[in-house]
Every structure is written in structure tokens, then in C-alpha cells.
Amino acid sequence: MKYIKFKSFLLILLMLSFVACKDKLADLYQNPDGYSKELADKSGVSVIAGFFTSELTQGFLLSGDYGSCYHQIRSGDRIMANAVQIYQVVPEGGSAFSLADVEHDWGTGGFNESVFNYVNTSWMTPILWAQREYNKSPKETRTTLDTLYITLLHAIKGYAYQRATDMYDKVPYIETGSAGGLDGAKITYLGQSEIYPKILREFKSCDSLLAKINLTSTQQALFAKQDILLGGSILNWRKFINSLRLRCAMNVSEVMPGLTSQVISDLSGAPLLSANTDIVGIADIAVIAPNRIGDELGITRAFRERADDCRANKKFLQDVMNCQPTISTRVVNGQTLSYFSGDNSGMGLQNGTVDPRVSYIFSPDFSGRYIGVDTKWDNGSDINSYFNKIMRGYYINDPIMTDISKTTFYYGKNKSKSIVLDAVSKADLTKRDAFLLAALRNECANYNDTDYSVGKENNLVSEYNIRPQFNYAAKYPVIHAVETELSLAEAAVRGFGSPNGSARDHYKNAIALSCDYWYNLNISNQYSKQTSPALSSTMDDSRINTLPAMQYNASTYAEFAAQKFDTMTNQQKVQAIFNQLQLHYNMFNFEVPYTAARRLIKYLGTNPASQYDRFKWKERMTYPSSIQASDPASWTIISPFNNPDLPLWFTGRATKWKNALE
């Protein structure tokens, strides 16, 4: 994919200076240097059009962001386990079995504060300046395109506030039609109970206006140039906005079920995201110079630097995707030892009983097994524990277990790695199981099998596949048709309405769409160590070049999964729907499954996410501490809610969910 060449609006984007300091709300109202209507007119693009395109390029709004994504992967995975940090569950060389949180360890300021800082600075700046220009212009001089751009900016503003209020509850809110502090209006802190009805009305109004807009061919061509998000398609903007309406309706379903039902009824017949290509977001390669992506900027740098988070989750592979390990036993010195000798993926992928995404999203271990890691603590005391069965599968049938003369165990691709027995184990066959088990557990816990790099060939457990994950053309998934289908499925199960089909139909369709999406993302990766941008030199070439063996029949598997869905209770169906949401977005979007997990705890009676035993559950993000000094009045408003243990309004709960050690 080529780096997009901005044409008539490039001059404007270069002139716009982004707000640098994010810890002061006053920075929201700084005038972008030299960005004026006069200069916009000279470039042949309206000033409102320029602000619209500028808004689409803001960091972490519609595209990835290295710093924010890094912290969402690192700290977010400690909450949600979208991917597994193996040293958190295996003690050899790892961490102790004691309660930990993500509030006070390294880097959590970026985790807690990113969305708040952005919504109060760069996410709002172009919107307010565009609104001010629109308000100043006489009605008779406003063009159809100006009205279109301001409408789409209002929709983007609603999306930004949805993300912010889901993280913090109370955030500074600026009313639609107001240029805020630019015209002297004081911002007001509002919470979810006030913001959600506002943005739902806003989305509905935006869709109604878009349904009536007709562009001339000249206007359409200009719009297509400015719209780097959806290519100038009003229909796709309507799909985006209506799918956001559905997201918001489901988010408030625990506290405003009547509003949820009303919105879903209103959406009957409305255009929604519905195809595997219906993904809203912007790729790194579209907004960042290629030579800067790998080393300096972009979501893919976050993945590369968080390689220790890239182990596959047992929940995804085994519990959601039906990839089951094969359990075998062997009697050694009178003791029955269990181990995983393989998995059912070979036949299952062919006959539609194993999810095709197993081979699209994940990579097998070096021996070809798709076996993920459990998030439950394993201290090795149970000789036949889940993790021990993974490790034992590598050596149990090796000659070293029966031949006293064999003192070195070789493993990995081409037997490139080795473990030498200690003196006691060299002399006694009965000691070898315990020694090799501990040694392999220690290798895994210390990431010696991968050298802290995703995409190495000697991995001891299944991990995320580098092909979709390091595809620089991958769009940051703001929202995708899979989420829309899953929301419709949940709405039908819970009785909020089913305007476009049954829960089964939507659930089945979501799985098929997700399969196609991840297959295409995998096979479309044309990058290598020699391209610009280049894949990391630490990755193994064999992994970079290994595509899925084929495109498996998504419809066959989706029907298999739907038949299981048919036999479930309503609560089990909602859990299954959540599982599909978390699997689909995985590390690419932490916020959506995190929000869904928090709101579903009340309905399900438990946390639907795959929780670590040792990490405290976090109910909300905390505010930047700098607000206390820079804005004492605002701090007085928000400080009573600055508590990660306090559930947000939309959860319908007053009590924190607690994990095993809390």
C-alpha cells in the first residue's frame, strides 16, 4: 500500500501545529499557528475542510499511537488478558503469587491518562476551530460541503466522548454548536448519565442530515480528497455513525434499557457496518512516513516492544475456537504422567470443527501445536497441571527419558536449543522428568525461547502470528462490522429488539466476517525485512513468509459454532458473544472489550474476561494528577471519582468485581 499523498490539503496539514502540552485544559484553546481562513482560501480548500481532515489525523483517535497502544497492551493485558504475559502465571523466573495492580507500576500514567489528555486537547482542537469558523460564516455563504464537514465533525466528537466517558465517567464536555473556550464558553464536567443521551441524539441527527445530502460531482471529488477515513462515502459514514449508535445503546443497557430498545428500534432498516471490509480506522502507513513507522511511530512498534505479551490465550484457542489439545499419558517409574501430544487443528480446520482464525491470528509452537497459556497461577506443585502438560509434551517420548547415556535434551526448530542435565539427573532416570520440566518452565518464564521477540522460531507455546499483527496497512479498528453483528446478537438475546434477524444469525455472521477479516489481514501483508517500512530484523524469516495453508470455510465453522450457540442459556449466549468480541479485537483494541466486560458483570454475575489470578480488576481509569494543581476547581469535581475501584455508572453496579486474590 502506498503512502497516501495528500494533495490540495497537504499545505494546511503541515501548517497546523498540534497542541504539545496535554496536562492543561487551557491548551485546548490555543490557536494553531498560522492556520487561517485566508491561507486556506489560497490553497483552494475551505478552512472547515482543512480542520475536518486534520481531525481525522489526530493521534489515537482513528489511528494507532505508539505510546498509548504500548501502555494499553502492557497494562491493559494485565487486566483483560487479551494476550498473556507468561511470567505472570509461571513462577520460575517469573513473579510471585501476590496481589498486584496496574496503578503503581511503571508506565501506568500513560495507560490511565492518554484518552483523557487527548479528548481535552488534540481530539477537540480542530472541531472547535471548525465550529467557530462555521458559526462566524453567514448562513447564505455556507456551502453544502461546509455543512457536511461540520456534521461529520459532530459525529467524531460524539465518538471521542464515548471513549472518554467509558474510561473516566466525568469528562469536560463542550456542547454541539459551541466553539467552547474560543468564544468564552466554560467547559462543564459531565458524566455518562448525561453524555450518553446527548451523543445518541447527536448521532441520530447526523445520520438524518447525511441521508438528505446530495453532492454534485465536483463536491464529491473534493470530499473524497479530504476524507482519508472513508474515502468520501456518505453511505459508509452513515454505517459508521449508526453502528456507533448501536454501540452506545448496548453500553447503557444495564441502566437505560428503555433507551437501548428505542435506539435499536430506530435502527431498523438503517445502514450499518455489515461486511468484513467494513472497518473504520486509519492505518499507520496512511498518516506516518514509512521510514518512521518501525523505529519511531505506529501501533506496530508497540507490538514489537511488548513481545512478552504476545503469547496466545488458552481461553481463545481452546475455549472459544475449539482447538483442543490431545491429552496422552505415560507411566514413568510407576508414576502416571500426563502431557499434550498435539491438538485437533489438523482435522478440525479441514472439517469445520476448529475455528479458521486459529491459523490466521496465531502461530503454533515450534513443534506445530496450537496450545495457549492459561491465566491461572501455576507454581508447578501439580505435576499434571495444564502448563506442565504443555512442557512435558516436548520430552516425554525423547530417548533422554529412558537412555541413561543421553544427558542433553535438544529442542526447537532443527534441534537448535538444548538443556544439559544436572549431575543428579544424569545418574538417575527417575529424576529427569522433574529436572526437564523445571528447566523448560524456566526457559518459558524468562522468554529464553523467544528472546523477548515475537516471531522467533523456537517458541514453546503458541503466540500471536506476526503476519496480521505487523501488517503496516492494518487499520486501527475503531469499530468493525463484527462488533455490530455481535451487538445485534446480544440485543436479540436480552430482549432489546431484533430488527435485522435472529441472535443466531448475527452470531454466526459475526464469526464468518471475523474469519474473512483476519485471513485477509494475514495474507495481504506484503512487508519484509527489506521493505520500507521494514519488519524487525529479530523476526525469523520462516515465520514472516509462512502464510495460512489455505482459506478455510468460514461458513462451515460458523454454522458449527451456531449449533453450539443454540444449546446455550441466555447468559451462556451473552458470554459467548463477549468471547467473540474479545477474540476479534484482541490486542488491536483494548477499550471495546474492556467496556463490554465491565457492563456485563452485572448481567452475568461474573467477569466475562479472562482474568489473571494476581492482578486487581480495574473499574475505571484515573485522572492526571496534574489537574489538582493546574485546575483546582475541576479537581474538586472529579476527585471523589478518582478511584479505580469505583464502578462507572453504566455498569449498574456499586460494588467492585474482585479476582482470586482480592
UniProtKB/TrEMBL annotation:
Q: What positions belong to coiled-coil segments?
A: none
Sorted alphabetically, which Pfam families does this protein's record hold?
SusD-like_2
Would you indicate the residue range of the signal peptide?
A: 1-22
Its domain of life reads: Bacteria
Could you list this entry's UniProt keywords, alphabetically sorted: Lipoprotein, Signal
Q: Fetch the Gene3D superfamilies from UniProt.
A: 1.25.40.390
Name listed for the protein in its UniProt record? Susd and RagB outer membrane lipoprotein
Q: Which source organism?
A: Pseudarcicella hirudinis
Q: What is the lineage of its organism?
A: Bacteria, Pseudomonadati, Bacteroidota, Cytophagia, Cytophagales
